[in-house]
Specification:
4 strands, globular, Gyrase A, domain 2, mainly alpha, four-stranded antiparallel β-sheet, 61% helix, 480 residues, single chain
Length: 480
C-alpha cells in the first residue's frame, strides 16, 4: 500500500509541475493591475485569465496526470482515458443529474455534489483509467470488433468502470466529503495552532511521499479550504487565506539554506569542498524554487533528530505567520519566484514581514543545527568516518556528466540483472529491484547524490535533485 500511494504521489508531480506557469501568468497580471483584477488593463486580464485556466482546472490535470503516471506505459490513450473517466463521474454526479437520479429538487441535493469536480475525484479518475489501461491495453477482441481492440478499448472500459464508481460514489461521496470537511474544520478551527500542526505533519510525511494527501485537504478544493486557489483568485479573506502557505517561505527561502551552511561549517576540513558544492546547489534550489528535497534528504536519514527539529521549526513558522496574519502564496512551492509573484496579489498581507521572519529563522536553523551536530556528533555530510562516503566521481563537464552519473547509479543498482523499473518525479529516481542485497549503496552515494531511501523490500529511491530528468533519460538509454 505504501508503494502504491507513493506512485500516486509521484504521478501528481506531472500536473503539479504545470502550476508554476499559472503562478507566473497570474502573478504578472496582478502585478500590472493589483486592484482591478484585470478590469483596468486588457493585458492584465489576458494574463490573469490565462493563469486561471490552469488553476481552475487542476482536477482535470490531476485526472490526466495520474492516469499517465500510474499506467504501465506512458501512453496517450491512458491520459485520454483519465479525461473520459473524469467527465463521466462529474457529469453523472453533478447537482442537476443527482436531482434527477434521486427525484428531488436541486435545492435539496446534498451540497457535497457541488464539489464533485475536485482534485480528489480527479485523482480517483486517473487511478481507474490507469487500471483499465494496465488491464485492457493488450486485449484482442474478435475480428468483428477488432477496431476496438487494445488501446482503443481503454477509454471505453474506463467509461464503463466509472459508471460503477459513480453509482458507489452517489452514496459514498457525501460521507467522504463530510469527513474531509470535518477534518479540515478541526484543524482550521484551531487557527494559528492548526496551521502549525499542519506544517509539522507536512514535513514529517516528506520521507514517505504521502504529504501530498495532507496537502490536498488544505491547499485544494477537497474540503472547502482551497487555500491556493482562493489566494490566487482573491475570493478569500485578507490575512487569513494563505495561512497554510505563508509560513513555508521563511523556512524554504532562509531556514533550510542556513541549515545547509551549518552542515558545511560542521564538515571535516578535507571534505568541505565536496559538501560546499552539494549544499550550495541544494540551498539555491530551496531558496529560488522552493524545492527542498535535495537538502532535506542530505540529513533526513543520517541525522533524523535534525529532521524532527526541522519539522518542529516548520510548524512554528506556519503558526507565527498565521498568528500575525502575514500572508503570501505560491503556485508551485515557497521559493523566491513565487514570493515575488504573489507579493502584489490582493490577498497578500504584509508579505515583507515573512522576509524578516525568514532572517530570524535562518539564525534559528543555523545555530540549532550547529549545536545539535556538535552535541550529538551527528554524521551529517562531510562528517563521515574516512572511507564511509566512498570515492567521489571525477567532475565531468557538459551533458556527459549525467551520462557518467547515470551509468554509475545504474551499475550500483545492479544493472539489467537486478533493475525491474526506473521512474522519476521532480527530484528522485524511483526504482524497483529484484534483490535489495545486490544494490551497492556506497557506489551510488559516491556519485554525489544527496541521499538514498529504501522504502521496501524491492523499492529504493535515489534523490538526485532537480536535474533528475536528465539522469533518468540517460538510464533509459542504458536500459535500451
Amino acid at each position: 500500500m505504501m508503494k502504491y500511494l507513493q506512485r500516486i504521489g509521484r504521478s501528481l508531480m506531472l500536473p503539479v509541475a504545470v502550476l508554476p506557469a499559472a503562478a507566473i501568468l497570474m502573478g504578472i497580471g496582478y502585478w500590472i493591475d493589483p486592484s482591478g483584477w484585470g478590469a483596468d488593463s486588457p493585458i492584465a486580464a489576458f494574463l490573469i485569465k490565462a493563469g486561471a485556466s490552469i488553476i481552475d482546472n487542476m482536477a482535470i490535470l490531476f485526472a490526466v496526470g495520474v492516469a499517465l503516471g500510474m499506467a504501465k506505459a506512458r501512453d496517450g490513450s491512458a491520459a485520454l482515458s483519465g479525461l473520459v473517466a473524469y467527465l463521466v463521474i462529474t457529469t453523472l454526479l453533478s447537482t442537476d443529474s443527482v436531482s434527477l437520479l434521486q427525484g428531488i429538487d436541486k435545492e435539496a441535493v446534498n451540497p457535497a455534489f457541488d464539489k464533485i469536480g475536485n482534485q480528489f475525484v480527479g485523482i480517483l479518475s486517473g487511478i481507474v483509467a490507469a487500471s483499465m489501461y494496465n488491464r485492457f491495453s493488450a486485449v484482442k477482441l474478435p475480428d468483428a470488433l477488432a477496431f476496438f481492440s487494445g488501446k482503443r478499448l481503454v477509454p471505453i472500459m474506463s467509461a464503463i468502470a466509472m459508471l460503477v464508481v459513480s453509482g458507489v460514489m452517489l452514496f459514498v461521496w457525501p460521507v467522504i466529503y463530510t469527513a474531509l470537511v470535518s477534518f479540515g474544520k478541526e484543524i482550521s478551527g484551531l487557527g494559528f495552532t492548526g496551521a502549525g500542526l499542519y506544517g509539522f505533519f507536512n514535513r514529517l510525511l516528506i520521507p514517505t511521499g504521502l504529504h501530498h494527501a495532507l496537502n490536498s485537504v488544505f491547499w485544494f478544493d477537497v474540503a472547502g479550504i482551497n487555500d491556493i486557489g482562493n489566494f490566487w483568485s482573491g475570493t478569500g479573506e485578507k490575512g487569513v487565506t494563505g495561512m497554510y502557505q505563508a509560513g513555508f517561505f521563511p523556512v524554504m527561502m532562509f531556514g533550510l539554506p542556513a541549515a545547509g551552511l551549518a552542515i558545511y561549517h560542521a564538515a571535516k576540513p578535507g571534505k568541505k569542498k565536496q559538501v560546499a558544492s552539494l549544499m550550495l546547489a541544494a540551498g539555491f534550489a530551496s531558496f529560488f524554487t522552493g524545492v527542498t528535497e535535495p537538502l532535506e534528504f542530505a540529513f533526513m536519514f543520517v541525522a533524523p533528530a535534525l529532521y524532527v527539529a526541522h519539522a518542529v521549526l516548520t510548524g512554528l513558522s506556519l503558526a507565527i505567520a498565521s498568528f500575525f496574519h502575514w500572508t503570501a502564496g505560491f503556485g508551485f512551492s515557497a521559493g523566491f519566484v513565487d514570493f515575488v509573484l504573489s507579493s502584489r496579489l490582493p490577498l497578500a498581507n504584509l508579505p515583507y514581514m515573512l522576509l524578516i521572519q525568514g532572517v530570524v529563522f535562518a539564525l534559528l536553523y543555523y545555530f540549532l543545527f550547529r549545536f545539535m551536530i556538535a552535541k550529538f556528533n551527528l554524521m551529517t555530510p562531510g562528517r563521515e568516518e574516512d572511507g564511509e562516503e566512498g570515492d567521489a566521481l571525477p567532475i565531468v563537464a557538459g551533458k556527459d556528466k549525467f551520462a557518467v552519473m547515470a551509468a554509475e547509479i545504474y551499475a550500483g543498482l545492479g544493472g539489467d540483472e537486478n533493475v525491474i523499473s526506473v521512474e522519476n518525479c521532480i527530484t528522485r529516481l524511483r526504482v524497483e529491484v529484484k534483490d535489495m542485497e545486490a544494490v551497492d549503496q556506497e557506489r551510488i552515494k559516491a556519485t554525489g547524490v544527496p541521499g538514498i531511501h529504501v522504502v521496501g523490500d524491492n523499492s529504493i529511491q535515489v534523490i538526485v535533485g532537480t536535474s533528475v530528468q536528465f539522469v533518468a533519460d540517460e538510464i533509459e538509454k542504458i536500459r535500451g
